[in-house]
Design a protein that fits this description.
By secondary structure, the protein is of the alpha+beta class. It is built from 4 helices and 8 strands, in the order αααββββαββββ.
């Protein structure tokens, strides 16, 4: 890594939950990693398992315009409709899932940040399969096709409607 600047080179982002506070040096490195329009896929996925009110999460999500709300079946979410992102929180405020919205999701603006392997929300299912290979699992969700990929302890589900990405959902692999 050396002096190379990469949005994926974020130190201590996958630290244990007990590490809610971070050093000023780590905070500076996070600031450098999040410069630009939106964070990289690795930085977005690194939010999983972290406290929503942790310094690092607040820094990374500060420009998303998130509004927290209580869910009827328990837990909370933090919704940034203009940024095209929703963070699902458990009762203790830990991020357990992330949803990025595409152009075909009527309730949200489209996520304009990058997705893994050079993909973006304009990518088609064939593009996703070419970049990521065969999905680990497939299914349906609300009448849409869903393809799941498991990498580095994270399940990434691409949800398609009419050959377009409706959502990309991220969650940690269940132990």
């Amino acid at each position: 890594m050396g002096d190379e600047k990469s949005n994926d080179a974020v130190p201590n982002v996958r630290a244990p939950l007990a590490t809610a506070r971070i050093s000023l040096d780590e905070l500076d490195k996070l600031r450098a990693a999040t410069r630009g329009p939106l964070p990289t896929p690795a930085v977005v996925a690194s939010l999983l398992g972290r406290p929503y009110d942790g310094d690092d999460v607040v820094l990374l999500t500060g420009n998303f315009g998130l509004r927290r709300r209580k869910l009827p079946r328990g837990g909370h979410d933090a919704v940034g409709r203009q940024a095209g992102i929703c963070l699902r929180l458990d009762d203790s405020g830990v991020i357990v899932a992330i949803t990025l919205s595409g152009d075909v999701d009527e309730d949200f603006s489209s996520w304009h940040g990058p997705l893994e392997a050079g993909l973006n929300m304009a990518s088609r299912p064939a593009d996703v399969r070419k970049a990521l290979g065969a999905p680990t699992a497939t299914g349906t969700h609300d009448g849409a096709t869903e393809e799941r990929y498991v990498r580095d302890g994270v399940v990434t589900a691409f949800v398609y409607v009419d050959d377009a990405i409706r959502q990309v959902r991220l969650r940690r692999v269940e132990p």
